[in-house]
User: Fold these one by one.
Assistant:
Number 1:
Amino acid sequence: MALDDVLAYLHAHRQTHVDQLCDLLRIPSISSQSDHAPDVRRAAEFCANELRELGLAVEIIEGDGLPLVFAQTAPRPDRPTLLMYGHYDVQPVDPLDLWTTAPFEPRIENDILYARGSTDDKGQFYAHFKALEAYVRTGTDLPVNLKFILEGEEECGGHHVYRFTEQNAEKLACDAIVVSDTALYNETTPGICYSLKGLAYMEIRVSGPAQDLHSGSYGGTVQNPANALAEIIAQLKDANGRCTVPGFYDDVLDLDADERAGFAKLGYTDDILRSETGAPAAYGEAGYTTLERMWARPTCDVNGITSGYGGQGAKTIIPARAMAKVSMRLVPNQDPDGIAAAFCDHVRKLAPAGVTVEVENLHNANPVLVPRHSPMMQAGIRALRAGFGAEPVFIREGGSIPIVGTFQACLKAPVLLLGYGLSTDNAHSPNEKFHLANYWNGARTSALLFHEAAGG
Ligand code: BES
Ligand code: ZN
């Protein structure tokens, strides 16, 4: 049977496919650092070349920002079309000293591949390439039309792919959008994800005296920007761990009984959380379980805070400025723009007298919810079940993939969030990794999805 040939090809070429992924991982395509722009471009070209060799019509689309890669198989009207999304840019690598080996020199140990971008997202979308390769090289009829849209600005909040999607809905038209940039439930259980969090990312800047002051000469006579910022931040959450921004919870879609029962059945314990994170205890909004907080409740967190002296020993000053970055992870149906505006008002009201406070909304992402019981979901579940050899469970994600909401709105096609990574793969952290078993099973799953999406 033809599908067996495809799967046998994937099995036989496992090592080659790892070597090829390593070539892509050697490219330091860090999108937020402009000195790496040529590397981001090289990663785009790497992907474009490979898709071209597989016979697709490929375009590298230049525009405002870093390039997009768009590719498609020769369209055949009798087949459904899948739009495969991925991002070939990666996060910065600092703190470099915490990496066991260099982030762009892939290393394999115990069947785990270590490199920046291995799970987020090069390894995941490259699994789709290998699945397609298996059809092409075995001469197996591909039961779907495939389109690829790959971007290089996912990690830096760029706008190229949004504008392109809004202006090219026709070109991207499809029967389903497949996104592999999330996680399995755990090492032994694949998950089918049906919700992503949204985001409102804020910066608070507090300024006081014209420059740092001697804290003996002037301490106690002027407001201290660091103290003022701490006061503001301390009031962003109440004693129950709830965000105090007025109206914050108004549009939150509550979990239904089915979802709560499904989460509970997964058996995720606070011991697991402690061992995954190294945190001494679980914490969060009162009245919800850890999984409910992680996947379905909005959050408000400081991501970075700077002020004054942080060097060795003591230095006695009243700092002139203080700054914090705050993210609010949002859930369906919260509106990031409305929440960001409410946050700005709230922080200005919390600001104590004697300092100047500026609040800026740096970027937003819409939350995503997809129906759990569509035919495309069923196809995804069958593909995951056969690809990983285990029964998939429904999961949600605490992370965001900003373009997905725009795809839903502009392309009006169902979204399939088919993740091959693990939450513990150290995405955005030192020693990012990707389990080879998940790479290989991911490629199998993609190959099976092409079959299942066409009706099996
Ligand atoms: N792959 C992640 C999204 C993700 C994160 C999925 C965690 C599952 C769990 C993606 O590359 C990412 O990091 N997104 C950013 C978006 C932000 C910069 C707007 C995120 O969630 O922080
Ligand atoms: Zn990421």
Number 2:
Amino acid sequence: MKVLIKNGRVIDPANRLDGKFDVLAEKGVIKAVEKAGKLTGSALDHATVIDARDKIVAPGFIDMHVHFREPGFEYKETIQSGCESAAAGGFTTVAVMPNTKPVIDNRSVVEMIQSTARARGSVNVLVIGAITQGLKGEKLSDMAELKEAGVVGFSDDGRPVMNPELMRRAFEYAKMLGLPLIQHSEVLDLTRGGCMNEGIVSTELGLRGMPTEAEDIMVYRDISLLDRAGGRLHVAHISSGESVELVRMAKARGLPVTCEAAPHHFTLTDEAVRGYDTNTKMSPPLRAQKDLEAIREGLKDSTIDIIATDHAPHDLVDKEVEYSEACFGIVGLETALPLTLRLVEDKTLSLPQAIEKLTSRPARIFGLAQGSLSVGKDADLVIFDPQEEYTIDAARFKSKSKNSPFHGWKVKGKVVHTLVRGKIVFSSPDRP
Ligand code: DOR
Ligand code: ZN
């Protein structure tokens, strides 16, 4: 099986490539990337041809932070539906968080997810193992066993590891195993009962707030532990300006800290909560304008290394309730590209920088083989039209869940095709 992608603007940050190139994939791997029109002759016999004129051709996106609710909450998302949602968003590799039921804290759950993904998943599914057993924050999981089973990092995401002694030991083990700890940075004593950012808006709405200090203190604590224990820290879904500054200072000191921002945190502020739409409720919450600006600045100067969606599907029964009662989280895989392209539109990032944060940077941080269009690598790629305008319709999401605050938004940037190992796993319905 051969696929020739012709005439596109190929952007492959890992290889510093940006220009008109043709890409040939054969038997699932990248066979050649050559100047447009240079690939000719029998090498192209029987190739399926995709004309990518006026489109961007890039390595498939990598999302290091998704929640596919299988096992345990399949009514919200399954590994299969999550993969379909990923493919529709241009993602060819995702890493699933361990807050499933049972929790991903032992080899058998990892293997179950891997085999389900192989059987029914259309994109690459990587697994993140729990730091503590049952995400209870009491005893460490068997991190060595999880590493053997193939996890790419450890996290108790959804919750922080509150006990600093436990976190210190987790750093020591993770260091031995060569994997990062991904922290959901939140001091629970400061956020308990809260449902949105603490500030003027929460006061006006009469909703209990979650202050930014809850995040900042935890980021500082972890940097401090990391400094002594060693290992690597990856801060999940950074949302406060002060936390961005803490990461910036830690990086300046040469500490192995990385972090990610989610599209909703660089697109919306707590002003969006005024309509009491529970699809504006997530953890960490939408923050103030100054935080949003600090996140954009952090993306620009690479303090924030990558973009990750925190795709958190929830059913209507979890969301059509009072604001304070609703589940935290929104789906993100199918809106990440157009929201990221807004950063290009407003000149926060160049298009290659934006693509880098969705491809080669996450690959480098997590030691993945994916994330480039190098010859010999799996032919995982996305073809998108950066100019196409449309209105986001959550009802058409491939995800089982529709909990998005971006429903009805007019945006630009549409995925046309997504390929995994040379196979088309998604094509925009408007472009058969
Ligand atoms: O909003 C969130 N939803 N934040 C988290 O940390 C967990 C996630 C979920 O699992 O729903
Ligand atoms: Zn999460």
